[in-house]
Amino acid sequence: MSHIEPGIFVRHDPLVEPVPVIFDSPHSGADYPVDFSYACSPKLLRQAEDAHVDRLFSAAPETGATLIAALFPRSYIDVNRAVDDIDPQLLDVPWPGPVSTSDRARVGMGLVRRVCRPGLAMYDRKLSVPEITHRIDRYYRPYHAAVADAIEQAVDRFGAVWHVNCHSMPSSRGPRIPVSGWERADFVLGDRDGTTCGAGFRRLVQGTLQRMGYDVRINDPYKGVELVRRFGQPHLGRHSLQIEVNRRLYMNEETLEPNAGFERLKRDIDNLVAAIAPYARDELMAAAAD
Ligand SMILES: [Zn+2]
To answer: What is the distance in A from the centroid of ligand 1 to the CA of 227?
Structure first.
């Protein structure tokens, strides 16, 4: 069964006996709202999408897990930013609420982006406070609530939850990631330096991918941002891990068309997803035996 909030998110519920495992794909949405009115090229704008990530993880419900995917694009409002990560330069008047501007927002990549990519403006105008408020209330908060509800239901029923926050990353290092001497791995796992999930869960995902032959990095350069920060509380049995998949493994990064590697990667991710449900069951049994 799927539940759809048109333009906002889709939630795919378990097709077999449920396990406390939630996948979410916050950046794969491509329903561009009519009031977006951006000024950059649609082709460049679309390259911000984590295109097809929802499809790559679509086996989740067949393993008893829940999969939630945003339907709006991350360039309209980014649910993987704190809600107060406001960029003052974007607005026509000062923001009326609390503001905690991150380094990302200072370079135009905050909650609502000011740039399509570095040096290229997203808009030919300033945005109004009601415009941003609408995006927060109509898109950001319902998406967060959908993930939070799924996580709370899992914890209520099972006493613990494993959340996988799914993304993809460009294959080449852009100017917005000023890390020297760093080559793109196949996968980057982020647990905010070991704070958002138990080490055993991170090792399960890392080891499963490595045995498939993939190069996996940990917290380098992506540590995880708002969604794993909000939901990851491993001391309370709430484990949250971010996964970044290298886009060259599955698509043409200019056109977003799936490439010849897509089917192989999809099969491997199917197997990764299938390994998580029994891990969660084993962890619950071990906890019950304590
Ligand atoms: Zn992403």
So the answer is: 11
Percent share of the chain, pLDDT over 90: 93
* C-alpha 109 – ligand 1 centre gap (Å): 12
The mean per-residue pLDDT over the stretch 98-127 comes to: 95
User: How remote is the CA of residue 286 from the centroid of ligand 1, in Å?
Assistant: 33
Count of C-beta atoms within a 10 Å radius of residue 211: 10
Cβ neighbours of residue 92 closer than 8 Å, sequence gap 6 or more: 126, 127, 128, 129
Tell me: the pLDDT tens digits for 170-223?
A: 998 655 454 544 568 999 999 999 999 999 999 999 999 999 999 999 999 999
- Could you tell me the residue ranges of all domains in the chain? 2-73+155-289
How far, in Å, from the CA of 139 to the mean position of ligand 1? Answer: 16
Question: What spacing in Å lies between the alpha carbon of 167 and ligand 1's midpoint?
Answer: 4
Fold (CATH) for 2-73+155-289:
Aminopeptidase (3.40.630)
